[in-house]
Amino acid sequence: MNVDLHTKSIEQLRNTYSHVEKYVKGNKPATRYEEATFGAQSTTNFHYRPTWAPDYELFDASRTKVILDDWYVLRDPRQFYYGNWTMTRAKQQDAMEASYRFVESKNLLDNIPTPVQKLVCDVILPLRHVAWGGNMNNCNIAAIGYGTVFTAPAMFHAMDQLGVAQYITRLGLTIGGTEVLDSGKDAWINQPHWQVLRRYIEDTFVIEDPFELFIAQNIALDGQLYEMIFESFVEQHLTSKGVSAIAMVTSFINDWFKESSRWIDAVIKIAADESDANNKLISTWVNKWGKRAQSSLEPIAELAFSEESQMAIDSSRSKMNERCKKSGLTIK
Amino acid sequence: MSLATLTTSYAFAPRDSEENFPDPLLYIGWENHLLFCAPVCVPVAGNTLFVSLQDKILKEVYGAHPDFLSISWNDVLWFKSSRPWYPNKDKSLIENGIKHKDVIRFRTPNLFGIAGSNS
Amino acid sequence: MSNVFIAFQANEESRPIVDAVIRDNPNAEVVYSPGLVKIDAPNSLIINRETIEEETGRDFDLQEIHINLVTLSGHVEEDEDQLKLSWDH
Amino acid sequence: MNSVSKHKKLSLHTRYKAMTRDLSWETSYQPMEKVYPYERYEGIKIHDWDKWEDPFRLTMDAYWKYQGEKEKKLYAVIDAFAQNSGQMGISDARYVNALKLFVQGVTPLEYSAHRGFANAGRHFSGAGASVAAQMQSVDELRHYQTEVHALSHFNKHFNGMHNFTHWYDRVWYLSVPKSFFEDALSGGPFEFLTAVSFSFEYVLTNLLFVPFMSGAAYNGDMSTVTFGFSAQSDEARHMTLGIECIKFILEQDAENRPIVQRWIDKWFWRGYRLLTIVAMMQDYMLPKRVMSWKEAWETYAEKNGTALFKDLSLYGIKEPRGWRDACEGKDHISHQAWNTFYNYNAAAPLHTWVPVAEEMEWLSEKYPKSFDRYYRPRLDYCRSEQEQGRRFYNNTLPMLCQICQIPMMFTEPGDASKICYREVNYQDDKYHFCSDHCKQIFCYEPEKYVQAWLPVHQIYQGNCFLDGVDPSQNDFDPLSAVLDYYELNAGIDNLDFEGSQDQLNFNKWDGEEAQEEAE
Known about the structure:
The complex is a heterotetramer.
Chain A: H1 18-21, H2 32-37, H3 82-105, H4 114-124, H5 127-144, H6 148-190, H7 192-204, H8 210-240, H9 245-249, H10 251-274, H11 276-305, H12 309-326
Helix pairs in contact in A: 4-6, 5-6, 5-7, 5-8, 6-7, 6-10, 7-11, 8-10, 8-11, 8-12, 10-11, 11-12
Chain B: E1 25-30, E2 40-43, H1 50-62, E3 77-80, E4 83-85, E5 102-107
Parallel strand pairs in B: 1-5
Antiparallel strand pairs in B: 1-2, 3-4, 3-5
Chain C: E1 3-9, H1 14-24, E2 29-33, E3 36-42, E4 44-48, H2 49-56, E5 69-73, E6 75-78, E7 82-86
Antiparallel strand pairs in C: 1-3, 1-5, 2-3, 4-7, 6-7
Helix pairs in contact in C: 1-2
């Protein structure tokens, strides 16, 4: 046995890469998150202007009105890099499989009373398109945002949103096959109570400032929508009606919403703290898009909660507002 | 233009136009001597005499090559942009028609580099 | 006729897959190099879920091959039961 | 409501459609042209996105499951490698220079690919193509990150890796990969896919990963082997995206063919030029060799490419214009590239050397047509100069090709004794190229390439010195000023391998290990 062979410590030349080292506090090895993220993106000496956006360099901080001295201040508190992100999601996926097995073995979805099944389909299935919107927008942030510390989690978030859209799709397929998904899509395109929200999403598709897009999508809309649907409607409202199977097979969505909120809040707080100008700008965006998002959710609240809808709307708005106030924004 | 762009406003000044340099650039290559892996790029003032390019600059650039001392400069063949070229050695580069980013090469008859390998 | 090929990391998990490919493609030729098993076959090559299941003695999801797949060449057609590589249209 | 069991067994195809394509919709509150503004300007016509087929049909749940498993395995190897001081088990410290080149010149490309695919993923209105591009985007981010992690341990023990992203934006030879990828990124989404997914991933990437990773295995570097093969398993999906995308575009409209052909011509050549550094890595930097560049080219490019282009001829696509010249170059480019790095090693954060006697024999055997005739005498001369204390360095900056940005080191097709020069007048300036194919790329899109940031010219313009440096001072030393700008540790990261800190340290560990074993 050569157990001792390699135990003699060999002196290291350095703790980490130079472009990472300047972001590591104290004289210690960088974490995997830090090595994976800091200083990754090109910053200078770009060769050619994009044929699709000649006014900007390929990576250009001036695409947003938010001004940060160094974009690498926007740390993700979850410290996600691809490895721990995907392993975390794989674990959650295992749990989802277990829930599906349990729910299916006990026929729990089949046993939901028909009117409640219909309510679930009406309220939840069109949201797969909303999640697709969130996927597109975060993908755009990953493409045109500045600094890997901001853009890499946006890409994970985009894929998470696709995962959410697919979990909702799977729920639909399990309850009623492609027909219920088709009617859900039809409602999304045509039914009046979804149109305000669809207009909101389509308007976010043409936002040019990646930070404003981050606000409009990830806090103003999702901060209210997921609160209202997956927390209030699924976890509380349906469970109080004795239907807990839906909560079981959508538990990923709620867990992910809470987990990713920590990242979103951190980004907002750090950016707003850097200057009054940033704070004012971000507050304006939150107020503007938050208000629009709220009114786009009103018809859906009515669908979900009928007479208790105003309460649900107010509660999710105030939860979103609380998060923003905690991040130091001025909320009207 | 054939470049496909989203808008018509795609136009950028060339990055290497003459006014961006303190002195114009000249590219020089020594034929059949590829120990020096590629032609070189040197900034040379336009009023430099050709003879001083030959005696001073080329010596600085290629002097380390074992063939360099054997060059018989009167027999050297010159090329500009791949065409034979007959510089007047006592005139300046400008007077010899050299412009920014021109490429000149010289062939040294009977010299084919290290062990005749074109190195 | 052109060859198609597929290559896997040379490890324990790839073995039953490689064995299954050899069983189902008598014309296939297997080349081992450091860390890598490459299988060439004239024109087309198939991987059957059932054959792998016979080799492993357990259920196998064809998408599991992604874990140890290194590279391939040819057009891919995949369903639950079979993955086919070919130059056919 | 229907019962659950009735819907359980949906075909993979239908299920995947519900999971991807059906998620998107035709927007009406904002016009589609505004939501997907980049889809038309390149001239590619798409009539029916529903014809897009993704053969692997991975949904996020399966993606997370399999990728999570790959990551678990990979990080176990990376951890074990560090714990066991795996760097001591490699064949020779010279080997690490291949890793330096990899982390400097390839790893940042993975990152750029991530951003580029995010952009493409956002801008295709067909959700099938969009999802495929997005998955590739996050895979490419994976590759950047796993490479950084796998090489982190080497970086702690060897020089020439520590500042690689900074160097990528500045150092002369790294403008070759950087300009390659920025060329692709600055094109529209269809050109980007043709460039990266098809021309690079499908046609050329096997040449980068497979022989190089086998080389790592031969040289005792299990950490690199594992990240390489693990990354390559995603590549298999990416390559499939590449060929699907080309077929899809060609099937959509006959008018797409000439555009695609031009892109294939351009990007095959751009990619081939980029691989020059891989050729050199394979023939010169692996102390234990697996196969020569020439053999790898014959196995992975010629055989495979011939099958591919025979197949694509059904669509009227011809083999890329530069194909023959590329095949001709297989006898030369690795040697020419090594000579270039040997010439300019004072400004490069890696080490070069003259191969030892048995390596020279190997090269001679693998390159019977070219090595003894052109390249061996050069190397012999360099060795003897070095032995007499006059290690040869080229002190004058090289002329670069305007397109590939490689020093003009390539010789005329068919005549390895003469440098290949091509030039063109455009507006008031001359532009120079290493080949007909680089020239042609310029001539088609000069508005783009006049912007090129050519490192040599930038140095002469005074843009590669730190603030406050005054080039007009008498004691101004341009090389050291440029190295300061590069943030390269002069005398440590650069120069010959002989006498380097890497060499000394490795020999010291080796000695200690031998001593321990003796005890």
